[in-house]
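Students often ask why inverse folding is considered easier than folding. One informal answer: many sequences map to the same fold, so there is more than one right answer. In these notes we will look at a single instance of the problem. The structure comes first.
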């Protein structure tokens, strides 16, 4: 299936509760397409559903798989199968969803950068890009540097992209616009996530319904070669399909196509 012209995609982890069986996944993809999306990032889908079945369901609903997210095991010891699945999905981008807890140290981030560079080199030979998806914990400081900075300083830009998650960068106390500009040459996919504050606690929100400065974020993104803006909301305060529709509609209103 040919990639659509739109930049907007949905991270399927947002609707993970509706993808535990093949029939549920098919219904969820129909609703996703009705919400306006033409592309999805694969994550949170039951491991019992084979890649061929996923591809058929996506095709049947006019949805393009623009990326996937995997664990470190799938990107190292299980890399051959991961590559096979990506080829079945006709997908040329994957990412490490999160760094392992036992590597969250200065030495750990340096080692993770090396490991991901090696995997990224193998993936690139197959025409597939590898990225790292951040949360907030990468912004813990180890001496004079954050884990986030250590990871990218100790990985090969040719083989490891950045997949910035807007809300988690903010939660980590960093400037997302600054990091988009800093890593512009290493990005093709970004996660658009918003949040608000409820009773002094961070609460994830639909894109455009929270406190992030989307005008500044979009201006920074538009100055790069970013191909995909991926909506993700880990926890929704309303029906998940209503939530993804609100995010999609808000991005359209902001001028994203």
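Output (designed amino acids):
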């Amino acid at each position: 299936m040919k990639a659509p012209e739109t930049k907007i995609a949905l991270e399927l982890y947002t609707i993970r509760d509706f993808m535990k069986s093949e029939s549920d996944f098919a219904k969820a993809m129909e609703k996703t397409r009705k919400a306006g999306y033409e592309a999805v990032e694969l994550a949170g889908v039951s491991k019992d559903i084979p890649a061929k079945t996923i591809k058929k369901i996506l095709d049947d609903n006019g949805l393009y798989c623009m990326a996937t997210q995997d664990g470190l095991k799938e990107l190292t010891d299980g890399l051959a199968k991961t590559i096979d699945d990506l080829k079945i999905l006709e997908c040329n981008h994957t990412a490490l969803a999160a760094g392992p807890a036992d590597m969250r140290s200065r030495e750990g981030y340096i080692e993770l950068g090396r490991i991901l560079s090696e995997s990224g080199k193998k993936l690139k030979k197959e025409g597939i890009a590898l990225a790292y998806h951040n949360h907030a914990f990468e912004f813990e400081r180890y001496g004079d540097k954050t884990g986030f900075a250590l990871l990218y300083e100790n990985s090969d830009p040719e083989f490891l992209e950045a997949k910035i998650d807007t809300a988690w960068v903010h939660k980590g106390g960093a400037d997302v616009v600054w990091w988009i500009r800093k890593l512009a040459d290493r990005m093709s996919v970004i996660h658009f996530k918003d949040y608000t504050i409820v009773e002094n606690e961070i609460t994830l929100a639909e894109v455009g319904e929270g406190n992030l400065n989307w005008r500044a974020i979009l201006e920074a993104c538009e100055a790069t070669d970013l191909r995909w803006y991926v909506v993700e909301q880990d926890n929704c305060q309303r029906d998940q399909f209503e939530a993804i529709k609100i995010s999609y509609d808000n991005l359209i209103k902001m001028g994203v196509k």
